[in-house]
Amino acid sequence: MSRKQRPTRRALYRQRSEKSGLPPGSLVYVGDRGGSSVRMTLLDYSDTGYTERLIAAPDECAPFRQSQSITWINVDGLSVPKTLEGLGGAMGFHNLVLEDILNTEQRPKFEDYGDYVFVVAKMLEFNTDAGHVKPEHLALVLGRNFLVSFQEVAGDPFEPVRARIRTGAGKTRKLGADYLLYSLLDVTVDQYFVVLDRLGERIEQLDQLILSSESPRIMGEMHALKREILFLRKNVVPLREVVNTLRHSDSALIDEATRPFLRDLHDHIVQVVDRIETYRDLLSSMLDLYLSSVSNRTNTVLKIVAVFSSVFLPLTFMTGIFGMNFEFMPLLHSPKGFVVIVTSMVAIVVVMLAIFRWRRWI
Q: Which of 66, 179, 268, 349 is the most interior residue, by most CB within 10 Å?
């Protein structure tokens, strides 16, 4: 997937405002990762062979709507609504479906339109250079013998699925389009584990840093990690319900042979959600540990300051008394006065330190 930066909130709000007042089904691209063109590829296959080529115009897809073979149409780029509208017309998609495809802020969802089902998910990638999780909108439309996938930009984690189709390995060419839908979602969920592994490494590094330092950047790093975890939770938890609904759906498009695989996919998503919740609890515990560590270090410093203040308080009192400008004062004119006073001050310091040590204050 492309390594562009995540859109700012201000940019997303501005794009959302462009749809204000428009009727339902209005096709407006909401996102900032689209280029100036749309690239469509077709992969048509059966158990005996496959055909792969580029699609020049959306109308070329219409014959594959009723094809006896399985057809996978992949669309890279969502920034040209006219092209998507033409593809939707050729494949018979409702305008509300096209609207959700163009809305990259759409949360994961499942909708059954009878002749086809519509699934929205999020592809996630950890951008090592920027140090954050980068999402990409993924929309899937499943028909009887076809699957159309929509992505924001070119590049995806689906190459292993394409390789299995080209070589005939596995079950992909032996089962229907619903198994292809499962395969794409399965690869997408596998990427979640990769992202979680990267976040886990960052959390482990931060945990070690907390115990060895109190750098101001720790709070910023912790806040960034919590934001990433919340972002993951927002995009993964709804997908768990989507897959659960999909595997229990009574749609004729979901074959009984595919349901065990969907159940396994649901289990994988549950594992992802469990890890996300674990990381969230771990970050909360680390925050408490960090604040406690800072508080303990502060208390230690304050204790040392209090000890020094307590030791010098009587000394300050004595110097204040003997520093008064009175003519008649004890030891004022004595040759041994200075020695007596200094010896007394040293004795006071030794006694107070001994008491502090005996009481285990130092």
A: 179
Quote the CA–CA distance of 238 and 133 in Å, as a whole number: 18
Q: Quick one: 132 exposed, middle or buried, by C-beta within 10 A (0-12, 13-18, 19+)?
A: middle
Please answer whether residues 237 and 273 qualify as being in contact, where contact means their C-beta atoms are separated by less than 8 angstroms.
yes
CA angle 333, 334, 340 (to 5 degrees): 125
Which parts of the chain sit beneath pLDDT 70?
Answer: 1-21, 25, 33-36, 130, 211, 213-216
- 134 φ/ψ angles, rounded to the nearest 5 degrees: -110, 120
Query: What does the radius of gyration of the chain's CA atoms come to, in whole angstroms?
Result: 34
Task: Say if strands 70-76 and 146-151 run parallel, antiparallel, or are unpaired.
Answer: parallel
Buried b / exposed e along 208-245 (16+ C-beta atoms within 10 A):
ebbeeeeeeebeebbeebbebbebbbebbbbbbebbbb
- Taking each helix axis as running N to C, give the angle between helix 337-358 and helix 259-322, from 0 to 180 degrees, rounded to the nearest 10: 160
Q: What's the CA angle centered on 208, arms 204 and 211, to 5 degrees?
A: 140
Measured between alpha carbons, how far is 70 from 176 in angstroms, rounded to an integer? 7
pLDDT of residue 20: 64
Cα–Cα separations (whole angstroms), residue 357 to 47, 296, 360: 85, 20, 5
pLDDT value of position 179:
95
Burial of 282 (C-beta count, 10 Å sphere; 0-12/13-18/19+): middle
DSSP β-bridge partners for residue 109? 120
Owner of token pair 């006219």: 82
Residues 320-334 as b or e (16 or more Cβ within 10 Å = b): eeeeeeeeeeeeeee
Query: What confidence score (pLDDT) does residue 223 get?
Result: 83
pTM of the model: 0.77
